[in-house]
Amino acid sequence: MSSKSQIQDRARFDQIRYAQCWEDADQLVAALQGPSGRTFLSVASAGDNSLALLTLDPARVLAVDLNPTQLHCLELRVAAYRHLDHAGLLRLLGSRPADDRAELYARCRQSLSAECREWWDAQPDLIAMGIGAAGRFERYFRLFSQRVLPLVHSRKTVQALLQPRDPAARRQFYQQKWNTWRWRLLFRLFFSRWVMGRLGRDPAFFQHVDGAVAPVILERTRHALAELDPSANPYLHWILNGTHGEALPLALRPEHFDTIRNRLDRIEWRLAPVEAVAEEVSGVDGYNLSDIFEYMDMPAYSRLLQQLAERMNPGGRLVYWNLFAPRTRPEALSDLLQPEPELAEQLHGQGKAFFYGRFVVETRK
User: Fold this and answer.
1) What is the rounded distance in angstroms from the CA atom of residue 39 to the CA atom of residue 237?
2) Where do the domains of the chain lie, and which CATH numbers do they carry?
3) Whole-angstrom Cα distance, residue 223 to residue 251?
4) What does the pLDDT look like over 23-82, one tens digit per residue?
5) Least crowded by CB within 10 Å, which of 155, 205, 311, 329?
């Protein structure tokens, strides 16, 4: 079986694509609840959700990624947990305003590998803006909030959206104040496949996606703004304001800071596709697979899903997200994997990373 990912030759992996994890770690951790001492394999991305898995008291978290700059993001986060207090971590990431990020980085760089230190030393502008803002996807959202959104709503209206309200009041605010014709028009333009592929995600990531994407994202956004609570959504706060405000993703919440810091020796990372690592590692109890199946055709997805399932302990779980391409366990693998649709649907309905169409949980039989 090939240990090379299908996306490797079609997209660039020499820049930070995601300076944050844009999947909701609350969903991930809830789906992987279980006893202490387990082994997790996690798509690294920027590292937030791999670090969040440490709250489950595992024996080992192995984070993997095709992109060396994504692993630089994870490594600097690990150093920040080691050398900074909680407030300093939030300032370095950009979750809070700061003018001392160069100093904060200087305190962290001593424990970085030579390659990682050399890379970040050459990125003073990225450090100054907050390392959580340093990715292509975050720049895309910053362009939206700074250039597009002001054409639709005033800052006063944006901040009003983020105020706590009861469900009926949220729906009323959305319909009467937010959901204007200009909002719908500019949203559909900015989040079209063409614009997103050139400014946000690589066009190659849409190869297995059928149909227009903007109307789908618009409806998911309506759900997040009108049905869920925008005031408690860290992803929405960042998109609209460029910081997390008082809402934080799981790995950044103060109650988890010491837990993660004290378990940093249990996380390791490797530059490799999931396919290659899965050939080497057995006895896995849980997979955090982000949305990697989005980039694969169905035969490649089925092969990798089978490979991962065969390396799992009974009762272990695979967790992943569908953005636009529908991917769930094929019937041919029914002897290996049991879907958990009720749990997945319940967690998906609460998900704060609102642009995903489906949350998938499957258990090894």
Assistant:
1) 33
2) 25-129+250-364 (3.40.50.150), 136-241 (no CATH)
3) 24
4) 999 999 999 999 999 999 999 999 999 999 999 999 999 999 999 999 999 999 999 999
5) 155
Residues 6 or more apart whose Cβ sits within 8 Å of residue 27: 319, 347, 348, 350, 351, 353, 359
What average pLDDT does this structure show over 118-143? 95
- Is the pLDDT score of 115 beyond 80? yes
Say if residues 46 and 73 touch (Cβ distance below 8 Å). yes
Judge contact between 59 and 96, C-beta under 8 A: no
Burial label, 179 (beta-carbon count in 10 A; 0-12, 13-18, 19+): middle
Name the DSSP class of 162. T
Q: Quick check: 83 pLDDT over 50? A: yes
Q: Which residues fall within 8 angstroms of residue 38, CB to CB, at 6 or more apart?
A: 56, 58, 59, 285, 286
pLDDT digits (tens, 9 = 90+) for 185-218: 998 888 775 566 655 555 555 454 455 667 888 8
Residue reference for tokens 């366990």: 329
**Per-residue pLDDT at 103 exceeds 80:** yes
CA distance 263 to 47: 14
Cα separation values, 131 from 166, 174, 177, 193, Å: 34, 32, 33, 27
* Res 306: pLDDT: 95
Q: The tokens of 179 are what? A: 């959901």
Single-letter code of the amino acid located at 144:
F
State the pLDDT at residue 278: 81
Cα dihedral sign, 350-356-358-363: negative
Q: Pick from 340, 335, 330: which is nearest to 361 by CA?
A: 340
Work out whether the CA dihedral 280, 282, 287, 288 comes out positive or negative. Answer: negative
How far apart (Å, rounded) are the C-alpha atoms in residues 193 and 191? 6
- Cα separation, 90 vs 244, whole angstroms: 9
pTM above 0.85, yes or no: yes
Task: In whole angstroms, give the CA distance from residue 132 to residue 359.
Answer: 24
Beta-strand pair 39-43/358-364: unpaired
